[in-house]
Amino acid sequence: MHLAWVLGVPVAAFFFMAGALNLGAVVAEWSGSGVAKALFLPVSAVLGIGAWMLVLAAAWRLRRDYLRRAGSAVDAVVVESDLRCRNGRAFFKFDLWRVRVEAQFLHPDTGNEVRVRKEYFYHQFREARARALAEQLSVRAAVPTVVRKNYAMFDVPKRPFWTDIW
Questions:
Q1: CA nearest 76: which of 100, 102, 99, 98?
Q2: CA 143 distance to own-chain centroid
Q3: Contact status, residue 104 vs residue 114, Cβ threshold 8 Å
Q4: Closest CA to 23 of 59, 4, 48
Q5: Count of other CB atoms within 10 angstroms of residue 12
Q6: pLDDT beyond 80 at 89
């Protein structure tokens, strides 16, 4: 399912943005305003990107709620935790803080030892939150985890990077 998610999200994002731009063009044409026609592209793009982030957040919340209902709660032990700052490049000069966590637990159905890894990203303005999460999920710390079949999710309020949602 993870592979389908990783391949499906960019395709869905493309079609979502195409729809947002098409809707912006229809609204600009309907309004008859020259200013609306001139600004529909940047305004539609910005609103489409914002709406897509909301769609991803909603998908994560739905997935988290489903796993909480249908999955089993286990305590995992963090075996690897890493906090790094990636310096800003290119057009946007903002730093990006990455918290990578790998935890180990016994699968409730099979009894096998399983490892799960998730990444969380924070912009430089949220450095304190990144440090707090890295401290909360430090090595040998217990982290609540929800498990269902071959999927595990850390039960923390922060949404992981989009490739780690599923």
A1: 102
A2: 19
A3: yes
A4: 48
A5: 15
A6: no
Q: Which two tokens stand for residue 30?
A: 């309907």
Q: At 15, is the pLDDT very low, low, confident or very high (cuts 50, 70, 90)?
A: very high
| Residue of 76, 71, 78 lying closest to 105 (CA atoms) | 76
Give this prediction's pTM.
0.73
* 64 pLDDT tier (thresholds 50, 70, 90): confident
Amino acid 27 reads V
Average pLDDT over residues 102-116: 91
Q: How many CB atoms lie within 10 A of CB 110?
A: 10
Instruction: Tell me which residue has tokens 């731009």.
Output: 21
The token pair at 27 is: 């609204």
pLDDT of residue 83: 92
Residue 2 confidence (pLDDT): 63
Query: Do 104 and 76 meet the contact criterion of CB atoms below 8 Å apart?
Result: yes
Residue-by-residue DSSP string for 110-144 = T--EEEEEEEEEEEGGGHHHHHHHHHHT-TT-EEE
Angle between helices 34-70 and 2-31 (to 10 degrees): 150
Helix/strand/coil for 30: helix
Give the whole-angstrom CA distance, residue 127 versus residue 154: 20
